[in-house]
Write a structure and sequence with these properties.
Blueprint lengths: L6 E9 L12 E9 L9 E9 L28 E11 L9 E7 L3 E4 L6 E2 L16 H13 L7 E4 L7 H10 L3 E6 L11 E4 L6 H8 L4 E6 L3 H10 E9 L18 H5 L3 E4 L9 H13 L7 E5 L4 H7 L8 E5 L4
Parallel strand pairs: 8-9, 8-11, 9-10, 11-12, 12-13, 14-15
Antiparallel strand pairs: 1-2, 3-4, 3-6, 3-15, 4-5, 5-7
């Protein structure tokens, strides 16, 4: 165990250059630097040992040179570590909200040790009977995303017809199960039939469907009330043709578009008018105030076995580039997590 003030090696995952097209392992580089295990004087931050890192689709958008006004995230800097959600243990703290030994989740760099200079956005882990890796998924950002998008934006009613794209991912697997627990009929789409492990009524492999509109008509002959959007592009177009009157669409992500230099067009937007559809994009940051309420709902269901949660763990920081880029070719089943270190 390293002692306070010691200089130790610090393995990191670096972005080499901005990425165009499908990201490859070679776009990222695992390097080893060093870090002094002491918070610099005058810094109000915390020093942490990273335990788990979360592979999330939005990370892809930060790997390009963003030119968006008002973008909610900045581009990564080539030559520097990438960052994202993770679980970590506090080694030293100069911030009043945290003390040595605390376990936290929130944004950290992809490296073994990190100095977090603005820890106000971090969450302290209280329920330590849960696996710590769950705080990269069901008990972390993806869980709040699923909860807010489905319950706050879509306002489900018992008996409604729900469609979830990217249904085996960290968010999609939870939305489908929340819908089932709410008494809805649920269909999910994913990149393989083997990915339906989450108790949906039906699931299909979108890669095997020549006509997505026909596939949705097959599974939803009476139409779709709620669509939880993770994919965009052709899938969104097909859904718009199959929505019911006053349907709701929560727009969480558009993973089919992230690797395109020129995004695909969506052609059936007039259905939003004709069917009086409410379609709303959202960011999880706006709903973190609901985190305590979410935990009250989800923790008992996990403990009672009413929610199935699947993780896909990659061992070691050096496995990070393959794990992250694998998201975009459907390699993972469940929540993709990189295991950096034991507690």
């Amino acid at each position: 165990m390293a002692s306070e003030g010691e200089v130790v090696s610090n393995k990191q995952v670096i972005l080499k250059e901005y990425v165009s097209g499908l990201p490859k392992e070679s776009d990222l580089q695992v390097t080893t630097g060093s870090i002094k295990l002491k918070i610099p004087e005058g810094c109000n931050g915390i020093l942490v040992k990273n335990l788990y890192l979360s592979c999330d689709p939005y990370i892809r958008t930060r790997m390009k040179n963003l030119q968006l006004k008002g973008a909610y995230v900045d581009s990564f800097q080539p030559g520097s570590p990438i960052s994202g959600y993770g679980v970590a243990k506090v080694l030293e703290s100069e911030h009043p909200n945290f003390k040595k030994g605390d376990l936290i989740w929130g944004i950290t760099d992809w490296e073994e040790y990190s100095l977090i200079t603005e820890p106000e956005t971090l969450f302290k882990i209280q329920d330590k009977d849960m696996p710590l890796s769950y705080y990269t998924g069901i008990l972390g950002m993806p869980g709040v995303t699923a909860y807010a998008g489905f319950f706050e934006i879509c306002s489900p009613k018992k008996g409604e017809y729900v469609f979830v794209s990217a249904a085996s991912g960290a968010v999609g697997q939870l939305v489908g199960q929340f819908a089932k627990l709410s008494g809805c009929y649920v269909v999910g789409s994913a990149g393989s039939k083997e990915k339906n492990k989450f108790g949906f009524d039906e699931a299909f492999n979108y890669k095997e469907e020549q006509d997505l509109n026909a596939a949705l008509q097959r599974y939803f002959p009476e139409g779709i009330d709620i669509y939880f959007e993770n994919v965009g592009g052709k899938m969104l177009d097909a859904v718009l043709l199959n929505m019911r009157i006053r349907g709701r669409i929560a727009v969480c992500g558009m993973i089919s578009q992230y690797n395109l230099d020129q995004p695909e067009g969506v052609y059936y937007l007039a259905n939003i008018i004709l069917k009086r559809i409410r379609m709303e994009g959202f960011l999880v940051f706006d709903y973190y105030h609901l985190y305590p309420k979410y935990l009250e709902m989800v923790l008992p269901k996990i403990r009672e076995g009413k929610i199935v949660y699947v993780e896909d763990k990659a061992e070691g920081l050096e496995s990070g580039p393959a794990a992250l880029t694998g998201l975009f070719v459907g390699r993972n089943v469940g929540k993709q997590v990189v295991v950096v270190a034991d507690e």
